[in-house]
């Protein structure tokens, strides 16, 4: 299934600074970038680098003088996906076999203090038989217990705030989902997607639990 | 029903300081202090004052020199109690009719950040018909969801920590119960009791929701 | 010196609720209310009660149906004040002699977690000789170290947030000042004032340290 | 300069689990591991992997049955070091030129919430001319303002707690130093060292600010 994605950004810059953007579509086994195009107006030197996994692309711009600039990125991506056979979902990799890179997604982080949520997560989700069922139960719990309220949170809001105050936006839902997974030793990480048919169009925060790539919203929207 | 209560305390004091003790048994409509006796050895000047409600007694000792002292308090109290008729429990006072003194137990406090727990408390307990049922549901929820682990918390632990980390001692259970009540506009406050047959004997933290005086542990033990 | 103060408020009420207002000017030894006038339009039943100190007036309105109402309060107050002789300021009451009512302003509270700021407050302010000098140093420290930024904080912001993030509004400045005083065993409390020549006119958050009544902003503005 | 380092650990394991150890000495341009020896008794299968930088070694053990085991690691390392010429210290790499791997040490993390300390760090340290001087000032500020008290903190203590409560151990000092560096866009990270002549011998928490490798304690001890 092919998608056209596009984002346009513009900035007024008051002084020398460095921007790091993460807007490039990902190239993975289930998502092929067929075409992509980036324009910066006026042209500004930049370099593109990849994160630890060798796939997530970041673009870095160095601004030396106050200026205005705008940027436009568009791509055509072809996505394939695999329906997980629920009855066969537990041929999963245990922690001890994990690639060391993936093991790093077990640690608590700034917005996902999984170390504080271990008792809660074990009590609520620990009894599900498979990792697949646990992650599914976590996304359902979030959907049922956290209220979506635009503007209710900010850049300092973390999983602890969200589980306490029971309100947030997609970013907060994703942080909480990650924290609850990690509390169960399920590696999980955040990603930002171009959300299909989201209106108004915007980047959308999701999380994926490793080896299953269940996006919170894919589940919620269906 | 009569109880003998007793507490013995001893201190090594290294420099000038002021102690404020709250060990006197309360004299209320349902608890009469028949006899009480306090000895401080060696004798130290002190005064006894009552808190805002005119009933809770506090004793203040001024120590001016390094010293050792011990203190012993004993009392005989006669308790009467009334079984609440559950079917008739909702002849309760609404917030707007509350005595202004009691209204002060609606506010969030250092250990009971009820302002952060409003959505949670409404969702979990808001649908119960009466205040009595709400408070009962709160104490049951705490009993079922928070693990009692001696030494797991300290003097900085608050209701937010307890609802997140799901572990604590009686003090933390009481703080959380108070916060959840206040979040529903039910005035509630902390008290310390001489717990009957607690072994080893110790002061015991409880909370009471106003106009009903349901102690967390009375419910838990039955 | 006489002041005319006035406040006008209006509300759209969507359902039954109870309001508690604290807009009456205080009657104290240094402030006499010569005249005051309150109108509620349309007329709504209300009662006025005083807080623990017998002086702060609160007004409670019970709304039973959705409605719109407006309220206007005006008063003429005569203020006298005493210039504190700094050289003679230490004929102050020590904690052990404090009235029990005032002792309650030594405790940490929801927005003033003085228990977490003891080391900081002792290190920064403990060496000043008198309570007067300590409070003065606290207000100066806040003025020099916390940035005033309108809209930077909200109803959940507490002294801990403010001392960490170094930004806030008058409410946050007052909470931090109170916490730093209490950490030094100086009773302190919050009050809201009609600020003289504040533009636009608004209620103004201040704090007073007991037995001296030094308002943060009186100092800041001079 | 050559050092012999050694660590011995023993565990009683009650059920199946996975251990991840980080006890191997690092091989870098300024530290050469001449010899190293690891014994696990009884022998247990394990694999050694490196973290993102390709140098930090982690060892993973899979335990399948309850058991007791002990482990001993020893190494001879040869350290060389370069005295930084303070007058020439500012031929440093700016953020925009940083290797992408190093850029990841600019982000806030679980224990180093640099996003909350930006105003403080800029005000206290932003005026120093060079990165070297800034990091030096940060370590001195920590040394002068945070009290070292063994046992005062635990595995949940973060930089925010430490800057507020002003007490901690080496781990907390390092977390705070990292947070203050990152708040100034100086990449910084945590490391654990074999501390020379620490008595009793123990692993020691330090931090290094990238491109300068200034350990907190090297400075403190000299």
Annotation keywords:
C8orf32 fold; three-stranded antiparallel sheet; about 220 residues; disordered C terminus; 6 helices; Transglutaminase-like (chains A, B, C, D); homotetramer
Largest sheet of chain A: 3 strands, antiparallel
Count of helical regions of chain A: 6
CATH topology annotation of the largest domain in chain A: C8orf32 fold
Q: Give the oligomeric state of the chains in this entry, treating copies of one chain as homo and distinct chains as hetero.
A: homotetramer
Fraction of residues of chain A in helices? 10-25%
Supply the number of structural domains of chain A.
2
Mean pLDDT score of chain A, rounded?
85
Strand count of chain A:
10
**CATH class annotation of the largest domain in chain A:** Alpha Beta
What form of chain A results from the Cα inertia axes? globular
CATH architecture of the largest domain in chain A: Roll
- N- to C-terminal distance of chain A: 17 Å
Question: Beta-sheet strand percentage of chain A?
Answer: 25-35%
Give me the secondary-structure category of chain A: alpha+beta
Detail the poorly predicted runs of chain A.
212-222
The chain pair with the largest interface is: A-D, 26 and 26 residues
